[in-house]
């Protein structure tokens, strides 16, 4: 039997904001979350610096795949998220910032937080009371507890409960 | 609005473990317990509030 090496979530919530912020100018930009399309796959490739095979994610009918963009610049994807709808919660499988939003020279802050908040929103919409599960790397568990209000379930498994999910949604989607 | 500093040497990429049936059960159990605790807390808070109300004669 093949046993896959576990790879754990490794996203950083760098800033809680209802938009993403340009790290150079400091300007904030409103964001929108849309479904990833086949046409988008041309730019989301390993050759272009993306780490995961989003073509496979999009082809998986059990998963919903979303992209974060700036409305005035919709052709540029800032980050991607894939999730599944379970019986009582949303489970985040992959979350990746665009290559230009990684590391010390990243262009925008707030991308990962926006996408996690979207997962929480989907959870409420599906009647799951905001519960969102995922797996975290050891060194980031405390970070997620602080920034997302997530709980550990033992091991690397984490869950964002109702109250924390509501806080994130209020931060990101309050109009 | 809080600014969270990034841990050094961490890439902004993620991938979750596949969700096993065991993990699903653990998550469901957490959700049940969380909801139960929240319901108990609300009930307790309501009781305390009612008791602490001043009575006017």
Description:
The complex is a heterodimer of chains A (175) and B (57). Chain A has helices at residues 54-59, 111-125, 141-148, 162-173; strands at residues 20-22, 28-29, 32-35, 64-69, 79-85, 90-97, 108-109, 132-135, 151-152, 157-160. In chain A, helix 2 crosses helix 4. In chain A, the strands form 2 sheets. In chain A, strands 3-4-5-6-8-10-9 form a 7-stranded mixed beta sheet. A 3-stranded antiparallel beta sheet of chain A has the order 2-1-7. Helix content of chain A is 23%, strand content 24%. The longest helix of chain A is centred in the last third of the chain and has 15 residues, at 111-125. Chain B has 57 residues and is an all-alpha fold. Helix content of chain B is 56%, strand content 0%. Chain B contains 1 helix and no strands. The longest helix of chain B is centred in the middle third of the chain and has 32 residues, at 21-52. At the A-B interface, strand 6, strand 8 and helix 3 of A face helix 1 of B.
Please supply descriptive tags for the structure shown above.
heterodimer, A: 175 residues, alpha+beta, 23% helix, 24% strand, B: 57 residues, mainly alpha, rod-shaped, disordered N terminus
Q: What's the quick description here?
A:
The complex is a heterodimer of chains A (175) and B (57). Chain A is an alpha+beta fold and 175 residues long.
Please outline the helices and strands.
The complex is a heterodimer of chains A (175) and B (57).
Chain A: E1 20-22, E2 28-29, E3 32-35, H1 54-59, E4 64-69, E5 79-85, E6 90-97, E7 108-109, H2 111-125, E8 132-135, H3 141-148, E9 151-152, E10 157-160, H4 162-173
Parallel strand pairs in A: 6-8
Antiparallel strand pairs in A: 1-2, 1-7, 3-4, 4-5, 5-6, 8-10, 9-10
Chain B: H1 21-52
